[in-house]
Structures
1.
Amino acid sequence: MLGNFQQSTLRIEVKASEESIRDSLLESDRLKQWMWPQNFTSLSGTLNPGNTFISSLGLVEIEHQVEKIEENSLRLLLSKGIDGYHEWHWGDGWLQSRLEGVSILPLNLGQTFSLFRLRQYLSSNNSPNPLS
């Protein structure tokens, strides 16, 4: 893989419950909403360990494999456009993202944009079921 080794950990406050954050990360319909403008293939239902899906932004594709899901965390192994991993940790009112890998992409910039999109999504969807 060509590129630079990069790592970044960001933590933000969000006006959302632990359950709402978890659902926004693990339910594919919600994930697709806040991760716009990325496109997803092979992503449906609720994420489970072993699931694999691809996200793309323009010509760059990133393959995500769900390595593990725990009560308050998610770990994705990344390949293609990023060779590394992405970890999510959350609780009531907070969210943390750790991204590490080799890529030509500016990972910190993309990670920051994603966290702010998720915070915006969570603040505009305070109902228990924002999709209804």
2.
Amino acid sequence: MTKVNFYLRNKSVKKRTMINLIFIYENQKIKIPTGISVYPKYWNGKIQRVRELIEFPEHSEINDRIETYRMIMTEVYKEFWNAGIIPDEETLKKNFIAAKDNPIKIIKPNSFWEYFEEFIVYKKNQLGDIRDYDNSLRKHLKKIENILGKPITFLMLKEKNGGFIDQMDHYLTYEAINAKGEKGLSANTVGKQFKNLKVFLNWYFDKDMSTAFSLKHMVTKTEEVDNIYLTESDLEKIESISLEDLQDSFIRYLFIVGCETGLRFSDFTRIKKENIKNGNLYFRPKKTEGRVLNNQVVIPISSRLKKTLGILFASKHEDRCCELTEFNKTIRKICEKAKIDEDVLILKKIAGKTTEHIYKKYELVSSHTCRRTFCTLKYLAGMPAQAIMKFSGHKTERAFMKYLKLDAELVARKYVDFFK
């Protein structure tokens, strides 16, 4: 419900006083000076207009302006409402003032998709790889828009209990086609879509174009997935196999660097000679740039890392690079050749049902395996969790322990003395 009211700034004075416009909407209230002043004795507070008296001939002109401002305020808000946006006070005030100065031209806010396109450009400048937003999230939002038969608006995203978000959750969980061509995405994939949607909405709220609303009804589902790590034996196999293709060899060494540093793909692919000093690797991870005052990590260089970096810094590898997709595809091929092929049982919740899948270990290797391998092997070697967290960036020990992937046999071997 909206309401436009007009009140005097000070009704007790004898001289002229400003008439203020008060607009009430969505439990919010804004006050805007109209630029019109009047003597309080000529003001009718009950009907919020100037009294029609002969002694005050301005009454007709002032009342016409008041009515015009009422219509403009109503129309400005209507444009936001039609776009599915609840504007914040400053945005609404700014648009009213602009329309007041030019009543013929009411400023129309961008639509949901116009803001989404602006967000994509922002993310492209920030990340480079924006497929999670520009491909996956866009595709699913468009599909649900088609199902509903009407354009998405921000107001639709605000609705709870049977609204757009519930429809999206049902579609992703039971109807969306997964990589195997079957219906239903995994809980983690569904959760990722809502996580990315919330990233977009928080960006939109930060632009101060709209009043933020709660996102608690957008549940970021997660489930424990047995992502693998590599053992020392696995790493030795990867190091020792013969690779004729220079790009394959380059990716093999990059992978080992990731396992020895615990850095993310976006970081271990940027290591330069200048990052090495006094037997340590000095590095500033991309993820915490601008968010942490001093985000530099210092990583001691192991003998394996020293040897691998020496190879990478050789001229034949200096100018090489690769995309994440190429990296993951190639490292799986390398691990298959290295016979890292034991069976791994993975439990996944798809379309609301828990299913068992058996994979060869090499099929599950990716760039993220590097960080898990680093953390897990260091922990099994006896390094304190708090020390490892300095390198991995985990904030709580609980989150870190969930992140570790400890093979039951290795754990039993490590802690056998506790059972004597």
3.
Amino acid sequence: MEVKKPTSGRRNMLKGAAIAAGALSAPMISRADTVSLRFQSTWPAKDIFHEYANDFAKKVNDMASGRLKIEVLPSGAVVPAFQLLDAVNKGTLDGGHGVLAYHYGKSSALALWGSGPAFGMDPNMVLSWHNYGGGKQLLEEIYKSLNIEVASYVYGPMPTQPLGWFKKPIAKVADLKGLKYRTVGLAVDIFTELGASVNPLPGGEIVPALDRGLIDAAEFNNASSDRILGFPDVVKNCMLQSFHQSGEQFEILFNKAKLNALPAELKSIIEYAVQASSAEMSWKAIDRNSKDYLEMKKQGIKFYKTPDAILKAQLDAWDKVVAKKSLENPFFKKVMDSQMEFAKRAGQWQNDYMVDFKMAYNRYFSKKA
């Protein structure tokens, strides 16, 4: 039988197969080829938020199999919390973990990813608006207008934040008048409208300021963070439920040039790590927040529901604030209009479809008379 010599095309195909086989048996990329990125969070090292930043980094590092390594530093290691965006933009840091409300000084519109009632959307709905309702494109447009060269990944829908920690429970709107209070983002404007004297301190500075009497009251975020940061050690009353930050998200930032220099597969790993981290953060928050809530009750902390009159006053104040900001900043109005359009549709669906879970919970766990 005659053995045919491979044609030119067939020789190339066999050569390609041999190269592919060699690639499969090749050793892992050496450590010398590892791309290392230096990140900073806007949170103290002990805070659960810094843990979320590390959770994201671990997912990327594990999936990248030595080709990419993200190191996360705590707030203040390189720059103060509120300077994270500038540091990532300039390349002082390769990336970071924070919230958009911290960039409020750049554009008031950026705070709309965290501050205010979001037209009745819960945190997960706000994230849905960002990914599917035009929010992502608007955020990119705002950063471009500010000449900020970063890639932003919004993720991690946070539970509704408490009204805050007070030396005395707040019973009526008038109790907020003249109160030295800490918050951030557009919540600054809400509480200013309600008569408070507001100081937007970063997370690590709040409890020391409360302890020294520099502020009378403060909000940060959730049961786990509040407990870890030491709120129960200096204040014994916490007011639950508020519209000032009822749908906030986290933000993972990358210097755009550093991100664009990565191979496509590493960029994909980052994108999918964001999505996985968003889900894990949501689940972890339920577990940890509920445990820390019970632990603080055991410590003797008294929790009160924020009176409806105060919640309504927040909405009234919000309407005044956004009317003014919409006139001052065209991007603010664009984001508000986009959120409203999405919320009207998604909110109607959710409100009509979702059952009242309190009915079932109360059936099995409410105290019997």
